[in-house]
Amino acid sequence: LAALPKLTYLALNRTKMTNAGVKALLPRAETLETLRLAFTAVDDAAIDDLIQFKRLESLDLGGTKVTPEGA
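-> structure tokens emitted (71 positions)
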């Protein structure tokens, strides 16, 4: 991702994405507008990192273990 400094859309649905992977995306927190994480291993522990993506207009967490309580 380092070679894509202006990345605005990233779809990682149905991959092995984890909470650690969300943390690794933080360098793109200023540019990402759409992030698709459906059906990944992401859970409530990733919320603190996800809220740092201030430009997000669309976030897909369907099929993850993110709960209403965590969100």
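The longest strand covers residues 9-11.
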